[in-house]
Amino acid sequence: MHAPIVWHGTDCTNLKQLSAELLALSARADAVLARALPADDLAPIALHQAMRYAVLGGGKRLRPLLVYVTGLAFRAPLEVLDSSAVAVEVIHAYSLVHDDLPAMDDDDLRRGRPTCHVAFGEAMAILAGDALQALAFEILAADTALRAAPLRHLDMLRTLAGACGSHGMAGGQALDLAATGLPLTPAELERMHVHKTGALIRASVRLGALAAGCEDEPMLAALEDYGHAIGLAFQIRDDLLDIEAGTAQLGKTAGKDVAANKPTYPAILGADASRRQLAELTARAQEAVAALGSNARNLCELARFVALRES
C-alpha cells in the first residue's frame, strides 16, 4: 500500500471518485451525447449502432467535464457548453475505436466489453470512427449559440481540428507506433503524450473557455498550462494503473503495454519517480488556475481526480 499523495496540505485519498456536482455534469454529457448521435434504427443501421456502441458504452467523460467546468468557471450557461462537450467526447470515442484496431493497439476489451471491431467487425469499426470524427465537427459547426461570435466559433473549430491531426492525436499515435520497443528518453516520451493524450485534453479546456466568451490571452495561456499538466498526469496515471490494477478494475486488458514492450512512464522513470511527477503535475495544474479563485474549485477537483482515479 502506497502512502497517500498529499498536495497543498490536503490528504487526497478521498478524491478517487467524482463529486455529486461533477457526476451530474457527467450524466448531462451522457444525455446530450445520446441525443446527438444518429438513432440506431436509422439506415445505415449497422453503422449507427456501431457509433452509439462506441460512444455510449460508459467512461469517465473527462473531456466533456473539462469543457463544462472550464465554462462554468466563467459563468457560462450549460446549454452554451453542450456542443463543445459532445464534440470532444465524440472525437475521443472515435480515437478509441481506431486505437483498438488490430493495426494499431490491437485490443479486444474496452470499458469492460468487447471493442467496437470485435462487436461489429473491423470494416464497420473503421467506418464508425470516420463517421464519428465528421459528426463532431458537424455538431460544433451547427451550434446556433455561437453564431453571434463567428471569429470565436472559427477558433473553436480550429482548436478541435488541431487536436485531431498530425500535430495532435494522429501524430501522437504515429509516434507511439514508431516507439514500440525503443528506449525513449523522458523528453521523447513526453512529446509523444503531449500529442496523443494531451492534445484533446488541452482542446477541451480551451473550448470551454472560448464557448464561455473568454478572450483574455493570459487566462487562455494559463488554461493551456492547466490542460498540459493534467494531460501528462492522466497518461502517467494510466501507465501506473496498467501495472498496478487488474483487467476487471480497468475495463481493458491490464499489463498490455508491458507485454507489447511500449515505452511508459514507469518503464522509463520507474514507478516511484512517476508518482512524484504525477504529484508535481497535479500541483502545477492547480497553480495554473489559481487566478480564478473559488471559480477554479471544480478544475482543481478534476486535476486531483485524474491523478487518483482507479480505472
Describe the structure.
With 311 residues, the protein is an all-alpha fold. 67% of the residues lie in helices and 3% in strands. It has a single domain (17-308), classed as Farnesyl Diphosphate Synthase (Orthogonal Bundle), CATH 1.10.600.10. A two-stranded antiparallel sheet has the order 1-2. It has a two-stranded antiparallel ribbon with strand order 3-4. It is globular, with a radius of gyration of 19 Å.
Concise synopsis of the structure shown:
By secondary structure, the chain is mainly α.
Oligomer: single chain
**Element order, helices and strands?**
EEHHHHEEHHHHHHHHHHHH
Q: Average pLDDT, to the nearest integer?
A: 91
Strand content: under 5%
Topology:
Blueprint: E1 6-7, E2 10-11, H1 20-36, H2 45-55, H3 62-73, H4 78-99, E3 109-110, E4 113-114, H5 116-120, H6 122-141, H7 150-164, H8 169-179, H9 186-196, H10 198-211, H11 217-244, H12 247-250, H13 256-259, H14 265-269, H15 271-288, H16 297-308
Antiparallel strand pairs: 1-2, 3-4
Give descriptors for this structure.
311 residues, Farnesyl Diphosphate Synthase, two-stranded antiparallel ribbon, 16 helices
